[in-house]
Design a protein that fits this description.
The chain is mainly α. It is built from 18 helices and no strands.
């Protein structure tokens, strides 16, 4: 009965993981908005940077907020902000409107990423946490995968790619409803003294926590970077339209989805360290290929390798950090999710690099540095 009850609680949590994937629409949206508003790479890349900037500002305070109101209520707040962000492009489609929409999307997602992962730990046993987090990432990746497909379908059928915003907004509202009626028992933090900002950041003094934080910075930088840059590579080298180019994003998230799904089973049975190494090597091969190949299928193959390789990096790093400081789950979660600020740093540098040499190879160089760091991180994983 207890096991069945926990399975029922997983349903609204996984629906929230699906809503977490809405943040990845920024790659598809950036390419469409760049085309619609005739923006440069540097200006267009402000959009994904604006989304992930809020992870730097909101992540640690969210960890502290969870100590006060609980994880479930924090997730509900995040879903409400996410639904609001998706409403704005329906009302006002402009440069300023999209900046506001992406800002709220980033704030909502920052709250969700910090609170949803530890909320899952209240339902799943610690020894299965890595595989459960990976399954959550699989569900998230489904939303990431279908976003460019919905946008392309809307553009072709209704001459309006923004149809994905009302669709995702409705799903956000459903997630709010189902999680709102679900009771999840959490640790009692009411009698505990809340951590201060100084105490939270002091956790970075732990070497594994610091290296894990940097690992997530690189993981997300590669994730957002590939999401935004893969279509640009097709446009640059093959001269295809933006409607055709965004399928590269779907290829990336398709293989991220496959990687997350398979990873949920692989991590439950085999060494995290070995699987992490294989994943990082797949990304290295894909990045190297993007420098040289100029045919659609080979570019897709490189993007697929990067997608599969990057699919399980986050849950392995995140679970290692949580299990390293189990008594500070909320604070560690906040610090790890702050690492998603890499989604701001990488696109900005990538945009500048690609504009500087007038080629997307500049952006690939920036992402390659992130892959090299992840190869270094392999030896820091316990097993």
């Amino acid at each position: 009965m207890m096991k069945q009850n926990n399975l029922l609680k997983l349903v609204p949590i996984m629906l929230a993981f699906f809503a977490m994937g809405f943040v990845d629409l920024v790659g598809t949206a950036t390419n469409y908005v760049k085309n619609d508003l005739n923006l440069s790479d540097t200006m267009a890349n402000i959009f994904p940077s604006m989304v992930f900037f809020w992870f730097l500002i909101c992540s640690v305070p969210t960890g502290m907020l969870m100590n006060r109101i609980g994880r479930r209520k924090t997730v509900l707040l995040s879903l409400t902000i996410t639904a609001t962000s998706l409403l704005i492009p329906i009302i006002s489609y402009s440069f300023v409107g999209m900046l506001l929409s992406f800002s709220l999307l980033g704030i909502g997602n920052a709250l969700m990423q910090v609170s949803l992962n530890p909320l899952l730990s209240n339902v799943v046993n610690g020894d299965k946490l890595a595989s459960s987090l990976t399954f959550g990432q699989f569900v998230k990746a489904i939303a990431s995968f279908i976003a460019p497909l919905i946008a392309s379908w809307g553009a072709l059928q209704f001459h309006n790619w923004r149809i994905l915003f009302p669709i995702f907004m409705v799903i956000s509202v459903l997630a709010i409803f189902f999680l709102g009626i679900t009771s999840i028992e959490e640790e009692n933090t009411a009698t505990q003294k809340s951590s201060t900002f100084t105490q939270c950041f002091a956790l970075l003094g732990d070497k594994l926590i610091l290296l894990s934080f940097l690992g997530i910075v690189c993981h997300v930088g590669i994730d957002v970077g590939t999401n935004v840059t893969a279509p640009k590579i097709l446009i640059e080298r093959l001269g295809v339209s933006v409607h055709d180019a965004v399928y590269a994003t779907s290829v990336y998230f398709l293989f991220r989805t496959v990687g997350c799904f398979s990873g949920a089973f692989i991590l439950a049975r085999f060494s995290s360290k070995k699987f992490f190494g294989i994943s990082a090597f797949c990304m290295l091969l894909g990045m190297c290929g993007l420098f040289f190949f100029d045919t659609k299928m080979m570019i897709y193959a490189c993007v697929a390798l990067i997608g599969f390789g990057n699919s399980n990096i986050f849950p392995i790093i995140f679970s290692a950090a949580l299990l390293n400081k189990p008594e500070k789950k909320n604070e560690v979660s906040g610090l790890m999710i702050m690492g998603l600020f890499g989604g701001t740093i990488f696109p900005l540098i990538m945009g500048i690099a690609s504009d500087a040499i007038n080629a997307q190879a500049g952006a690939v160089v920036v992402m390659l540095t992130g892959v090299i760091y992840l190869l270094y991180f392999i030896r820091k994983i316990a097993n």
